[in-house]
Specification:
alpha/beta, Rossmann fold, 2 domains, 6-stranded parallel β-sheet, 17 strands
Length: about 400
């Protein structure tokens, strides 16, 4: 954090800020179904506009792969963005040419310009230097306010930051501060909840967390693989027999680091994964041969609540079961609501992130009750894996002075 300059530390009056945002919001046709990313971005930009900044906003939308697909134009976002910013928003139907520069140079203090989808440019995802240079011509200072894109070395995230004074935006700083507090300097005891389908997709996450935290609760399909490694029958449950060596390695790292791994002692089984399917609770070592493990059982939930009841920091990534279908959402919902109550009581700091995680917390009705919920997916995962994110690394160079 100390090495990352923030736009809030600079005099922005009369400055054109080339701001990389992530306004890749869900839509149905031309209708935005969830404007959370727009509102969170705008909250950090409004004070800058009030101080006389001129905003040139770059964002991606969908995966056009360099094609100018009208359905993926960001112009549809302009009404909501203008409402959230509290100022009219101009639009440039291209994002990196002479016409865009003319639009940008015409801005007055406190005005904003939204540029067309940066991924309409073929060189965006290849981090093309020529395209990065074109982006840099649009303003005076580059502001990366898109943590969720920081794991990509693209022209509008990493390349541009090498060509002009580059700083972090308010939302970027907020995200980094929350994740740093949860992972790099947590108040102990610090516990993570890591769920999801497969151990193989979160090997790096688990290896990093067990070396830094006091405990890790393992849930979802990946808990099945840990249970299988201990000799538990799986029936027809999702698990990964080829990851037993990985499980042993993670357990060894946890033992060496003094981190406790918590697995469910009870599981909920059913003959099929379907709404209202008849379910039964059995011991974690007693899954019938014709059944699927689809959630952690009530006893396991009480065990996990006891762990969270001692924690001062809670980091959450991934659901504990197949939360999309009742009744297999019970463990995720109960534990999420318990963590929210601990947060509300001031007893714990809670930080969550990842697409399935956000969906699960929304399902439980507590996404707004955690200390911080990250809107990032891949970037959040790479951060908790302990990896360096190129979009952030580019902000820490020492040869700039804004």
């Amino acid at each position: 954090m100390q090495n990352i300059p923030s736009i809030t530390d600079f005099d922005v009056r009369g400055k054109r800020l080339v701001v990389r945002a992530d306004l890749n919001v869900p839509t149905e046709g031309k209708r935005v179904t969830d404007a959370t990313r727009i509102s969170r971005f705008a909250a950090g930009m409004r004070p800058l506009l009030a101080r006389g900044a001129r905003l040139v906003i770059l964002t991606h939308f969908g995966r056009p792969m360099g094609d100018m697909n009208p359905e993926l134009s960001v112009d549809k976002l302009r009404p909501l963005l203008a409402e959230a910013l509290g100022v009219p928003v101009r639009f440039s139907d291209v994002s990196a040419d002479r016409a865009t520069r003319i639009h940008a140079e015409g801005l007055a203090d406190g005005e904003a310009l939204l540029c067309e989808n940066v991924r309409f440019n073929t060189g965006e995802e290849e981090n093309d230097p020529t395209l990065a240079h074109a982006f840099a011509q649009l303003g005076d200072i580059f502001v990366n306010d898109a943590f969720s894109c920081a794991h990509r070395a693209h022209a509008s995230t990493e390349g541009i930051a090498r060509l002009m004074p580059a700083v972090a935006g308010p939302l970027m700083m907020e995200e980094i501060a929350a994740l740093t507090e949860a992972l790099e300097a947590p108040h102990g005891p610090a516990v993570a909840i890591v769920g999801g389908a497969k151990v193989s997709t979160k090997i790096a996450v688990l290896k990093n967390l067990v070396t830094k935290l006091d405990g890790v609760i393992v849930g979802g399909g990946m808990a099945n693989t840990f249970l299988h490694a201990a000799g538990a029958p799986m029936g027809r449950s999702l698990h990964e027999p080829d990851q037993l060596d990985t499980v042993a390695e993670i357990r060894a790292l946890a033992d060496e680091s003094g981190c406790t791994l918590y697995l469910p002692r009870e599981v909920v089984c059913a003959a099929e994964f379907a709404p209202g399917a008849a379910a039964e609770t059995v011991g974690a070592d007693a899954c019938p041969a014709d059944r699927l493990i689809l959630d952690a059982g009530p006893g396991a939930v009480e065990d996990f609540k006891a762990v969270l009841g001692r924690a001062r920091t809670i980091l959450w990534n991934g659901p504990l079961g197949a939360f999309e279908i009742r009744p297999f959402d019970r463990a995720t919902v109960e534990l999420a609501r318990y963590a929210a109550r601990r947060t509300a009581a001031g007893a714990a700091v809670s930080v969550a992130g990842g697409g399935d995680t956000v969906a699960a917390l929304n399902h439980a009705g507590v996404a707004g009750d955690f200390t911080y919920v990250s809107s990032a997916g891949g970037a959040f995962l790479e951060w908790i894996e302990g990896r360096t994110l190129p979009g952030i690394a580019a902000l820490t160079r020492t040869d700039q002075a804004a």
